[in-house]
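Q: I'm building a small set of examples for a reading group on sequence design. Run inverse folding on the following structure and report the sequence directly after it, with nothing in between.
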């Protein structure tokens, strides 16, 4: 009798779920296991020889990844590392959109069975969201939050998400409750908590996946418009050099005080400082004076 009653209750719960449109959602563990094979940490070396990391996700084809354009915009070499230690060279950029901060990357060889599923529908506010990436260089980390709002920024919709995002997350996927990619991490608002923005995956369809990849040394690097102080590029400070088994990092400059402290580390050395203001750029090269200690 008890067993029959449990079965009846189970049927009623399923029926209620169907009536009210309640859909089964994968738990975070299942989402992580499902999407992890498609996520990669990008090890980038730029034209100046600096090394840092960003994130990317395999979509559209077995040898194509999508990331944020600013992650690779001045790259001279890019490698993709997966959670299972597979490491593949990224041979070039297939297509890019600097305004929307998106880029399609070509991998050196196809990796079948790793493509993530996409959800091209614009999500509703308060939808649960997950982010997988390399915050501060700690690869393949997952965080969760909500689609806080949909904002029109730079003339197109962007997801405002409450998922914790740090330098190194740029280019990583934002996932819906079923583990489908809904957006690509792009930027965060400075001096705010859990206030970050992602480009909806619909915008990726504007890129031409069939274009011939352009090698990094032949890519025409079109500078993006100056980024306002409210934005923080979520990858540049993160070094790929390891320290104590974890990726090293340095903090993003927070203001003039942080800048002067950083200069003190270069006392006696020649440094070059680039100042951007209202679209104008000035370059200054000088020797940092050494300060005496009392």
């Amino acid at each position: 009798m008890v067993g029959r009653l449990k079965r009846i209750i189970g049927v009623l719960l399923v029926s209620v779920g169907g009536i009210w449109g309640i859909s089964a959602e994968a738990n975070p563990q299942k989402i992580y296991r499902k999407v992890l094979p498609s996520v990669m940490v990008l090890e980038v070396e730029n034209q100046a020889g600096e090394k840092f990391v960003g994130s990317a996700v395999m979509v559209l084809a077995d040898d194509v990844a999508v990331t944020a354009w600013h992650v690779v915009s001045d790259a001279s070499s890019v490698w993709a590392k997966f959670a299972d230690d597979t490491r593949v060279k990224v041979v070039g950029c297939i297509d890019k959109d600097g305004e929307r901060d998106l880029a399609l990357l070509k991998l050196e060889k196809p990796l079948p069975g790793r493509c993530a599923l996409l959800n091209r529908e614009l999500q509703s506010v308060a939808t649960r969201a997950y982010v997988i990436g390399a915050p501060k260089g700690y690869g393949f980390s997952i965080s969760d939050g909500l689609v806080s709002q949909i904002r029109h920024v730079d003339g197109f919709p962007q997801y405002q998400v409450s998922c914790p995002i740090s330098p190194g997350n740029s280019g990583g996927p934002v996932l819906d409750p079923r583990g489908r990619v809904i957006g690509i991490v792009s930027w965060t608002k400075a001096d705010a908590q859990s206030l970050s923005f992602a480009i909806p995956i619909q915008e990726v369809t504007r890129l031409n996946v069939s274009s011939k990849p352009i090698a990094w040394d032949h890519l025409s690097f079109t500078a993006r418009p100056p980024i306002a102080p409210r934005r923080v590029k979520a990858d540049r400070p993160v070094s790929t050099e390891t320290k104590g088994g974890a990726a090293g990092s340095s903090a993003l400059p927070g203001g003039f005080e942080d800048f002067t402290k950083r200069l003190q580390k270069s006392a006696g050395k020649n440094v070059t400082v680039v100042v951007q203001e209202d679209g104008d750029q000035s370059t200054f090269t000088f020797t940092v004076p050494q300060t005496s200690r009392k």
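The first helix runs from residue 2 to 20.
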